[in-house]
Amino acid sequence: MLEVLPETQEDMLAVRVSDELTNQDFDLYRELIRDRMKKYGSARLYYEMVNLSWVKPGVALENALFDLVHGREYDRVAMVGEKLWQELAAKIISPVKKKGVRYFSITEKEQAMRWVLEGR
Fold it and tell me: In the CATH scheme, what architecture does the domain 2-109 have?
């Protein structure tokens, strides 16, 4: 499930993902981040993962391709998670983002949000 957080503003998208991510969740995410990229030239992202149990492989691949195509249009990206595989995923995708990805543990989510907001 994808939830857009109230901290979303201007060029910054803040989302929380949980449970199982669907094609519809990723479609909404890509639409929201692409809109910011078009309007502002780049977009900041706060991406929080809580109780994330499953991402369908096809959906993950499609999202990875989106990241490859649009990676240079990302500004600061904070990924917040609670599992080792999430930290590893952040490290894997970091090179394709213009300013990389900074990983924070779930206990550091307030620090992560401040870091993304300060990027403006």
Answer: 2-Layer Sandwich (3.30)
CA dist., res. 46 & res. 48, Å (int): 6
Question: How far is residue 78's CA from residue 76's CA, in Å, rounded to a whole number?
Answer: 7
Which helix (H) or strand (E) covers residue 30, if one does? helix 23-40
For the chain, the structural domain boundaries read 2-109
Give the residue from 29, 39, 20, 38 showing the smallest Cα distance to 77: 29
pLDDT in tens, 58-102: 777 787 789 889 989 999 999 999 988 888 888 988 888 888 899
Residue 59 corresponds to which tokens in the numbers above? 């959906």
